[in-house]
Write a structure and sequence with these properties.
Rossmann fold, three-stranded parallel beta sheet, globular
Length: 95
Amino acid sequence: MDAKALQMALDGLQAQGPAGGVLQRIAVYARSAMRTVPAQVLVLEMPQDAVATAQQLFATLRRCDDSGCAQVWVETPPATPDWDAVRDRLHRAAV
């Protein structure tokens, strides 16, 4: 998801509130800052550097799993060659 779509999804979660029932814990791994974040969301900052992101990606996903997150939402990395490895690793992790 791009940053705008992530924020819209977070706004939707915020609007649901706890009255909608049990809310699953969700992790967001993003380069962009999110302006509103519901309490059940764990936000992890993605480095601005592709190499650093590639190096920490699987450790970050393990952290999300260890934190009990049912879903991990990731901001789409830039569509430049230096981010190819990150996009590949994300694709592999998603399948």
